[in-house]
Amino acid sequence: MWKVTPSKSLVIKINLVFLSCFLVIYATLLLRSSTSMYHQNASAYVRCNSLRDCHHKVESGYKMKAVLLEDGVELKENGGRKMVKRERPSFLNGSGFVGRGLKMGMVNMAGEDLSDWNVVGKIIPVTFQKVSELFEWKDLFPEWIDEEEEMHGTLCPEIPMPDYKKYEYLDMIVVKIPCKFPEEGWRRDVFRLQLHLIAANLAVRRGRRSWNRRPKVVVLSKCRPMVEIFRCDDMVVHDGDWWYYEPDMKRLEQKVYLPVGTCNLALPLWEKGIDKVYDVNKIQKPNPRTKSTKRQAYATVLHSSENYVCGAIMLAQSLLKTDTKHDLLLLIDTSISAAKRSALAAAGWTIRIIERIRNPRAENNTYNEYNYSKFRLWQLTDYDKIVFIDSDIIVLRNLDLIFNFPQMSAVGNDNSIFNSGIMVIEPSNCTFKHFMRQTDEIVSYNGGDQGFLNEVFVYWHRLPRRVNFLKNFWSNTTVESSMKNQLFGADPPKLYAIHYLGLKPWLCYRDYDCNWDIGDQRVYASDVAHRTWWKVHDTIDESLQSHCKLTEKRKIELKWDRMQAKKIGFSDEHWRINVTDPRRRG
Fold first, then answer.
1. Nearest to residue 226, comparing CAs of 187, 257, 261, 260?
2. 155: buried, middle or exposed (CB in 10 Å: 19+, 13-18, 0-12)?
3. Largest pairwise CA distance in the chain
4. Are the beta carbons of 192 and 178 closer than 8 angstroms?
5. Which residues of 158-194 are buried (b: 16+ CB within 10 A; e: fewer)?
6. Helix (H) or strand (E) holding 173
7. DSSP state, 124?
8. Radius of gyration (Cα) for the chain, nearest Å?
9. SS in 3 state form for 215-261?
10. Distance CA 378, CA 351 (A)
């Protein structure tokens, strides 16, 4: 007994030592493997498109973690998937509507029972890396970018896409897109966008085309697919949760070849460091054997009052001074008198009468009660493309270049939204009807058309801020004021257009910007921009200038504002300036 006991004890101790060593080695390998895999694969989830190295924002908690399970798929206990059996859409049920013998690329269709589809053609699964759930909309649509690379250039994330070269040419792309409605912000879901872009890119890059056919796209979703990518004009059939499209491939090509999101400019209007105008031949590819019959026009809208007639006259005259060859269209309602219509026509506008559209969420007799009238622009279907410009804008350089860009192209405003003061749109009765069906559902963040349109067109393309330069000074710094006023007063102009936010120049005395006299309007005040507007005003015919007079009511308001500014004692002392504007007495 005395000899046996130590040997058993020794064996136990040896086994414990081996077990401890094994656990330490196993834990070390496991941790090392996980760390290595993260660093190898993180860039696949969010990549950066820049000459500089992409930095992964791990220190700020922005970890590139991918969630690869498909939405709505149940996992069985044995690890298998529960297949969802759906009725095949009617347009695939032997009517000859779509055809047979098709090659069909299936995107995000895991968990769907597709056995019935074999009679239609060959099923080709498309594999891709799902975008990280930590990848937010604001990463693709930032509030501000360094457009002119004055600081560090632009670091932009990219959405993972399939390796298109792996796939043969396809007749049809079928994609399942989850719908998070009615969750707040459901339209701005990056995974939803990724699936739309994969389907669009497959149609463009691997879609089989010939003179009499084009690729087909079928979407399975409870929500309507994004009208910014798959236009309602291209929809052939809507059958329950199935949406069948035959896209206009030229339009779709233009969409997919532009930068994704607004982290990059859709169009650099100048080369870095200089003011040379962008070479339009880089984006135009005319066919010498055909003559373009596309019709394009600038347009603006006046309704409910004559307060902006002077602004619309100035807009038309400033456009004509840039030697544009495009039509100028003005949509007005019956509130504009015959005399004012004559002046607007003399300024250069072709006038069309419209019926106003009421904003159902607006209060009676408020400024935004009828601002949905702007939707009438989409009914100008005798034109292929419209560049809308607000009537509180003057144009200083030729803007015809932006007709080459698709709907919706615009300048950034704040957060992830665009400013609707200048925007490229594509008229469509189908889109107009879509707007009208959504007016009760969509809540506009600002109660106006800009908020509404930003909920319809969440995917848009960023034009340079110089295209629609907003007259504001949000940061209220000397550096900001100096930079912006230098641009406002540049001769020859460096800006393409100035957007006069706040009180309008024709509602102020010529002598200074009257936004200085009102506390909450001072962020819009610039005497330099004010002088630029009046400089253009003085070049137009005197008969047109007469429509920029001050009403007696407005003179009283200006006098009151100056008195209040003096009482408050604003340190800039604009209220001390001697008013010489002849309109004060005229």
1. 187
2. middle
3. 126
4. yes
5. bbbbbeeeebeebbbbbbbbbbbeeeeeebbbbbbbb
6. strand 172-176
7. E
8. 30
9. CEEEEECCCCCCCCCCCHHHEEEEECCEEEECCCHHHHHHHHHCCCC
10. 16
Residue pointed to by tokens 């932009």: 156
> Whole-angstrom Cα distance, residue 181 to residue 580?
58
SS3 call for 486? helix
| Dist. CA 314–CA 303, nearest whole Å | 17
- What pLDDT shows up at residue 11? 53
pLDDT tens string 35-77: 333 223 322 323 333 222 322 332 222 223 333 233 333 323 3
> Phi, psi at residue 8, to the nearest 5°?
-65, -40
Q: What is the spatial distance between Cα 386 and Cα 431, in angstroms, rounded to a whole number?
A: 14
Burial 466-475 (b: 16+ CB within 10 A, else e): bbbbbbbbee
Phi, psi of 512 (to 5 degrees): -165, 165
Identity of the residue numbered 78: N
Q: What is 393-440 written as a DSSP string?
A: EEE-S--GGGGGS-SSEEEE-STT-EEEEEEEE---HHHHHHHHHHTT
Q: Are 172 and 215 in contact (CB under 8 A)?
A: yes
User: At which residue do the structure tokens 């979703």 appear?
Assistant: 221
Identify the three-state secondary structure at position 300. strand
For 68-106, how does the pLDDT look when each residue is reduced to its tens digit (9 = 90+)?
Answer: 233 333 323 334 567 888 888 888 876 555 667 899 999
Helix count and strand count (H, E) for the chain: 12, 18
CB atoms within 10 A of CB 78: 5
- Could you say which DSSP state residue 95 is in? S
| Segment (H or E) for 350 | strand 350-353
Asked if 419 and 499 touch (Cβ cutoff 8 Å), the reply is yes
DSSP β-ladder status, 393-395 and 497-499:
antiparallel
**What Å distances lie between residue 19 and 5, 7, 10, 26, 185, CA to CA?**
21, 18, 14, 11, 53
Q: H or E stretch including 386? A: strand 385-389
C-alpha dist (Å) from residue 339 to 309, 342, 344, 391, 547: 11, 5, 9, 18, 10
d(CA 305, CA 522): 26
SS3 of residue 135 by DSSP: coil
Question: Which amino acid is present at 562?
Answer: R
Pairing assessment for the beta strands 393-395 and 327-332 based on DSSP bridges: unpaired
What is the C-alpha to C-alpha distance for residues 555 and 308, in angstroms, rounded to an integer?
17
pLDDT in tens, 515-558: 999 999 999 999 999 999 999 999 999 999 999 999 999 999 99
Q: Are 220 and 240 in contact (CB under 8 A)?
A: no
| Distance, CA of 396 to CA of 319 (rounded, Å) | 8
Q: What percent of the chain has pLDDT over 70?
A: 79
81 pairs with which residues across the strands? 75
Tally the residues of the chain.
586
Residue 450's pLDDT is 95
Quote the tokens at residue 522: 């001072």
Q: Is 476 helix (H, G, I), strand (E, B) or coil?
A: coil
SS3 for 112?
strand
**Tell me, what amino acid is at 491?**
D
